[in-house]
Amino acid sequence: MTPSVALVGVSKEYLRGRESVLVLSDFNLEIPQQDFVAIMGPSGSGKTTLLNLIGGLDKPSSGQIYVAGERIDTLSNTALAHWRARHVGFIFQFYNLMPTLSAARNVELPLLLTSLSGRERKQKVAVALDLVGLTDRAKHKPGELSGGQQQRVAIARALIADPTLLVCDEPTGDLDRHTAEEILSLLQILNRQYAKTVIMVTHDPKAASYAARQLHVDKGQLVNDAVAVSA
Amino acid sequence: MKYLSLIWDGIWRKRGRAILTGLQVLVAFVLFGLLQGMKSGIDDAIDKIGADLYIVQHATGFSPMPLAMYSRLVAVPGVRAAAYESFLAGTYQKPTQHVLAVACDQDSISATIPHGAIVPPAAVDAMKRTRSGVLVSESLARKYGWKTGDRIPLETSVLRQDGSLTWTFDMVGTFVPGEQSLSPDFMIINYTSFDEARTVDRGTVAMYYVRVTDPKQGLAVAQAIDKLFLNSSDETRTESARESIQATLESLGDMDFVVRAIVGAVLFALLFSITAMMMQSIRERTAELALLKTLGFSDGKLFWIVLCEVLTLCIVAAALGLALATWVLPTARHFTNINVTMPASVVLAGLGLAALLAVVTAAVPARRLQVVDALAGR
């Protein structure tokens, strides 16, 4: 079975002023399809960089990245943008919703890049909002929703184009414990019932316990790879 | 169409700023429309003056010429028709209400004299029947509330045979000045009765108009006319009516340069101000644009969305500004005494300019966005 994500000898360095900083060094990783992986590590360890590379938001300085068998590190910026639209759903710590658009319009955004008609887009948006339990909030703007509701909108937006890979950067970092658990349970359902591969960066061991596998990253290296005890 | 809500939200995310920017564009294009419309309107009017029309003036430029020259002029080979006119300048009721009366032979009003183009035949007949008759341009009649049958007294500096400086005319009709007429407000009186009644310059005219048979031979005919009167006390200077009016306007200053300089300065200032506004707007939305890129929107698609926002704002505001200028321009003749309407070419040029302005202002801020940096708030 082709792994969902494979990193082969990936290094990433940034230029800070005139100084070159090595964030990831000769990183190798395989994530099978339908896995739920939590990436943990101290600040500056390279976990968000790792997530950005897997999600096709950034390119490695060297090495190869494969997602669902397709090599993505050699794609042009435009091709990478198209690839992201088809294959990856993103969930952020601060939800990153468009403040001027309603919940439904926010969820619809990825579908604007498809050839679906307005009616088809509307139907899909209704299904996605129903899945995250926000049908009655479709017309509300982000400012009129709680943090948990906003994150549910973000999850609906991540799901709408039916990607195989969900990339989550501290998805519960801005939520209270109870709401965080609801969101994590939702991610678990998406992983188990809807066969999505979920890769989540988190500082929170409790959040990480929802994942099937925990990766510990430090100083740009994979220091521990363990199967978690599921929450 | 599916990006409409994104574009619409982009425009109105700061309502006050959008309205102020729109007003800025609107005012700039009102100014553009007025200045460019005025200039193009005058150019159009000059262009409409037939290429076959020539003006014969005294070589000194201001001395009157004998009416006896008329028969010699029409006999010059290549001359199709000729006409003459004199002027009577006066005031109506107040010293500030100036009125110009053009004295001419009624048979040549429509055919030869360029500014009396549309005179109804009935009005010409009425003039022939009434020695003290006057035809008034529609706009001048409206201005002073005159109607057919009214007696119109003009205070002048021209002494009448009866010792009076007041010339009274009987209004017999109105006429519409030709499109090529620069000034819409004047009246037409009978040359014969005018000449008989005045005490000075009797038997003379201020200028002759000549229509040539072949405009290509116009210069040769003009030279032949001037040669005919060379070394006489009434030496002439014959030139194309079009070039003559152009020269008169140029003597007032380089209008082209003035219009271009003002419009250029205004649009240049507008370019900076809208670019600054767009840069600020984009800066405020860096995270949102980064999000759209994350979701798969390409740089090109984002540029088009930003461009459509600026285009909509600029085109709508410029169209309103040009519409306002089109509406205001005809009333400008109250101040300039120049008869102009907005040419369609100026409206199209204005809209084109607004589109160009939008493209330039959108291109500057919609540079490539580094999505990882933008998401991280860098």
Fold topology:
The complex is a heterodimer of chains A (231) and B (378).
Chain A: E1 5-16, E2 19-31, E3 36-40, H1 47-54, E4 62-67, E5 70-71, H2 77-87, E6 88-91, H3 103-108, H4 118-131, H5 147-159, E7 165-169, H6 177-192, E8 197-201, H7 205-208, E9 213-218, E10 221-227
Parallel strand pairs in A: 3-8, 3-9, 6-7, 7-8
Antiparallel strand pairs in A: 1-2, 1-4, 4-5, 9-10
Chain B: H1 4-12, H2 15-48, E1 53-58, E2 65-66, H3 69-74, E3 79-91, E4 98-104, H4 121-129, E5 133-137, H5 138-144, E6 151-156, E7 166-175, E8 187-190, H6 191-197, E9 204-205, E10 207-212, H7 218-228, E11 236-240, H8 241-251, H9 255-284, H10 286-294, H11 299-328, H12 333-336, H13 344-363, H14 371-375
Parallel strand pairs in B: 4-8, 5-7
Antiparallel strand pairs in B: 1-10, 1-11, 2-9, 3-4, 3-6, 3-10, 5-8, 6-7
Helix pairs in contact in B: 1-11, 2-9, 2-11, 9-13, 11-13
- Could you name the ranges of chain B where pLDDT drops below 50 across 5 or more consecutive residues? none
What's the CATH H-level homologous superfamily of chain A? P-loop containing nucleotide triphosphate hydrolases
Main beta sheet of chain A:
6 strands, mixed
Low-confidence stretches of chain A: none
Mean pLDDT score of chain B: 84
**Tally of extended strands of chain B?**
11
- Structure class of chain B: alpha+beta
N-end to C-end Cα span of chain A: 27 Å
Shape of chain A: globular
What CATH architecture label of chain A applies?
A: 3-Layer(aba) Sandwich
Descriptive account of the structure:
The complex is a heterodimer of chains A (231) and B (378). Chain A has 231 residues and is α/β, with parallel strands linked by helices. Chain A has a single domain, classed as Rossmann fold, CATH 3.40.50. Chain A contains seven helices and ten strands. Chain A has helices spanning 47-54, 77-87, 103-108, 118-131, 147-159, 177-192, 205-208, and strands spanning 5-16, 19-31, 36-40, 62-67, 70-71, 88-91, 165-169, 197-201, 213-218, 221-227. In chain A, strands 6-7-8-3-9-10 form a six-stranded mixed β-sheet, with helices on both faces. In chain A, α5 packs parallel to α6. The longest helix of chain A is centred in the last third of the chain and has 16 residues, at 177-192. In chain B, β3 (79-91) and β4 (98-104) form a beta hairpin. Chain B folds into two domains: 4-47 and 253-369, no CATH class; 61-234, no CATH class. The relative contact order of chain B is 0.19. Chain B has 14 helices and eleven strands. The radius of gyration of chain B is 29 Å and the shape is elongated. The model of chain B has no long low-confidence stretch (mean pLDDT 84). Chain B has helices spanning 4-12, 15-48, 69-74, 121-129, 138-144, 191-197, 218-228, 241-251, 255-284, 286-294, 299-328, 333-336, 344-363, 371-375; strands at 53-58, 65-66, 79-91, 98-104, 133-137, 151-156, 166-175, 187-190, 204-205, 207-212, 236-240. With 378 residues, chain B is of the alpha+beta class. Chain B has a six-stranded mixed beta barrel with strand order 3-4-8-5-7-6. A two-stranded antiparallel sheet of chain B has the order 2-9. The chains are: A alpha/beta (231), B alpha+beta (378).
